[in-house]
Amino acid sequence: MAAYISGMESSESLRYPEYKGESRGTPGADIDRRMGGTLIAVGLGVAAAGFAGRFAFQLWKPLSQVIIENAKKIPTPSLSYYYKGGFEQKMSRREASLILGISPSASKAKIRAAHRKIMILNHPDKGGSPFMAMKINEAKDLLESSTKQ
Questions:
Q1: In Å, what is the CA distance from 134 to each residue of 16, 17, 27, 130, 143?
Q2: Which domain of life is it from (predicted)?
Q3: Domain range holding 125?
Q4: HEC states along the chain?
Q5: 36-64: per-residue pLDDT in tens?
């Protein structure tokens, strides 16, 4: 093959570099070119991520204000299933029904079932408050006394 290369004209040897012997240059040059391309791609990716992060932080400030304003417009009682607030001096049917979680015109069976369910969760022997147990019992007594069968 060496005889063939020496017999080629100079234009053919320029056209077919694979037939040239070891005169291709340094063997690590292709690796260096690939490494350079990879580093450029990584650098562009980091720059793009930085610009995207900066844009997100600039966008977040007005967006967070809009979210907070809309959250304030949502009525809080609709978010909670349970009655929040203190107790009145004298318990009313409305307050008693809110404590037990039933309607004011519920039957005695529903009142007893709701009372039992809530007392199991709030009993003083199980770590509940004696005051809460007293209010739950008072609510049951008030609703049962004013309910007809």
A1: 100, 98, 90, 6, 14
A2: Eukaryota
A3: 87-146
A4: CHHHHHHCCHHHHHHCHHHCCCCCCCCCHHHHHHHHHHHHHHHHHHHHHHHHHHHHHHHHHHHHHHHHHHHHHCCCHHHCCCCCCCCCCCCCHHHHHHHHCCCCCCCHHHHHHHHHHHHHHHCHHHCCCHHHHHHHHHHHHHHHHHCCC
A5: 888 899 999 999 999 998 888 888 878 88
Domain total of the chain: 2
Q: What is the CATH number of the domain that holds 134?
A: 1.10.287.110
User: Would you give the distance in Å from CA 142 to the centre of its chain?
Assistant: 44
- Does this model's pTM top 0.70? My answer is no
∠ Cα 12 18 19 (to 5°): 55
Q: Does 41 share its domain with 92?
A: no
pLDDT category at 137 given cuts 50, 70, 90 is very high
CA distance to 16, 21, 35, per residue, from 24 (Å): 11, 7, 19
